[in-house]
Write a structure and sequence with these properties.
Structural class: mainly alpha
Largest sheet: none
Strand content: under 5%
Order of helices and strands: HHH
Number of helices: 3
Radius of gyration: 29 Å
Length: 108
Amino acid sequence: MRSDLRLTDLKRRERSASKLMNVFVPAEVSDAIGRVARELGTSKTDVVVALLNEGLDRSVVALKGWRRQKIIVPRPNRACSVKGCGRAYVAKGMCSNHYQKSRRVVTL
């Protein structure tokens, strides 16, 4: 399996099946990956997979027990600005009925 591939394994490894994934990377990163691949005598794909696996292993350890903080945002006062209405506003501080009415008013 490729999920257990590491940089240290690249010299003595046999090829296995893979899926195509197109990813854009900066040119200097691509050049560095190419240099590592030449030094280890393997393909760029194998180097990328090995680097990703090692990074995923480190992230699992680093994120162990981490949970996203709940962000509590107080609900804003969303009442229609027309006196005596009290419905929730939709646009420009007015409820749907008053907003549509203001759009229909023709000024001369």
